[in-house]
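Customer escalation, tier 2.

The customer says the design service returned an amino acid string that "doesn't look like it belongs to this structure." They asked us to rerun it and document both sides in this ticket. The original structure tokens are below, unchanged.
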């Protein structure tokens, strides 16, 4: 009776969350998959027909989708190393600071809590021909740069702004990981007169590796979802140089009302991101944590038994 009451209590707490997840997550995912095989048009849903894989074939032949996909990959390649390394560097510097540590934490975290739309508008003024950045370049005798008004500079400019806005979040995560490292490890390294680089390479990095993997994967997924920055700053231009996959999905689904095509884009994009995440997990996994085959498990067990037997023999025969 008591177990039944506990089960009912658990369902009472879990039930509302399950309903919300079903309505706003699971059901939309199922509908997206279904709509991707149809020509569903939101303004005239009665004329919906099953199209099979025609939408998928059309997407792979669509020039705009290929350009958007390539731009998204470029953005990820730019932002992931910059944001991960920048966050780790800031965390290491703040971790070593003796004074005003809280001030630096707040200062670098403030952009994270700001709306991306607000940050984008702010950097539009910074990147403008009469903005502060061009004024600084002019002071050093450098010609004015077009930044977001140039097809070659727009994407790197947005990437830099995105790093500035988001690096504080990963910095806080790295700071928590650094504070969790046992100080005795560094004290032992000091006794051996190891250099700062050796301590970082042999102590810091191995200790925070799980956090590094987490940050790497989350930053990658977040970079693939870029939408607000090009929407506000460039409108996908100039010459589609900042037109991303998520922006293409938005334009197709909510502007052109072609829900079937937008759902197809979303499925292709989600499938690609899932594969990439699985590859990242595989490449960053510890070899010791990798799943072992039954044969390897038996070999490991046999080796442990042999070591135990040898240790027992040495204890019984100390002169051996």
């Amino acid at each position: 009776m008591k177990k039944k009451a506990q089960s009912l209590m658990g369902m009472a707490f879990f039930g509302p969350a399950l309903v919300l997840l079903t309505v706003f997550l699971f059901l939309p995912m199922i509908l997206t998959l279904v709509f991707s095989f149809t020509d569903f048009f939101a303004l005239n849903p009665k004329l919906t027909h099953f199209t099979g894989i025609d939408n998928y074939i059309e997407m792979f032949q669509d020039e705009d989708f290929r350009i958007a996909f390539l731009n998204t990959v470029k953005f990820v390649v730019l932002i992931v190393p910059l944001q991960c390394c920048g966050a780790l560097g800031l965390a290491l510097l703040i971790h070593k600071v003796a004074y005003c540590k809280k001030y630096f934490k707040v200062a670098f975290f403030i952009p994270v809590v700001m709306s991306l739309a607000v940050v984008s508008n702010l950097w539009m003024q910074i990147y403008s021909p009469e903005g502060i950045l061009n004024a600084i370049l002019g002071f050093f005798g450098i010609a004015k740069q077009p930044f977001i008004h140039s097809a070659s500079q727009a994407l790197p400019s947005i990437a830099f702004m995105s790093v500035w806005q988001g690096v504080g979040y990963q910095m806080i995560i790295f700071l928590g990981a650094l504070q969790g490292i046992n100080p005795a490890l560094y004290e032992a390294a000091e006794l051996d007169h190891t250099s700062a680089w050796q301590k970082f390479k042999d102590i810091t990095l191995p200790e925070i590796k799980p956090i590094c993997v987490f940050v790497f994967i989350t930053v990658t997924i977040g970079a693939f979802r870029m939408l607000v920055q090009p929407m506000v700053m460039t409108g996908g231009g100039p010459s589609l140089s900042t037109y991303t996959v998520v922006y293409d999905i938005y334009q197709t689904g909510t502007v052109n009302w072609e829900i079937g095509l937008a759902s197809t884009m979303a499925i292709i994009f989600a499938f690609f991101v899932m594969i990439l995440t699985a590859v990242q997990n595989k490449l960053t996994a510890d070899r010791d944590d990798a799943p072992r085959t039954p044969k390897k498990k038996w070999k490991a067990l046999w080796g442990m038994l042999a070591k135990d037997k040898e240790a027992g023999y040495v204890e019984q025969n100390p002169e051996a």
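Tier 2 assessment: The sequence is consistent with the input. The chain has 14 helices and no strands. The first helix runs from residue 2 to 35. Sent an explanation to the customer and offered a walkthrough call.
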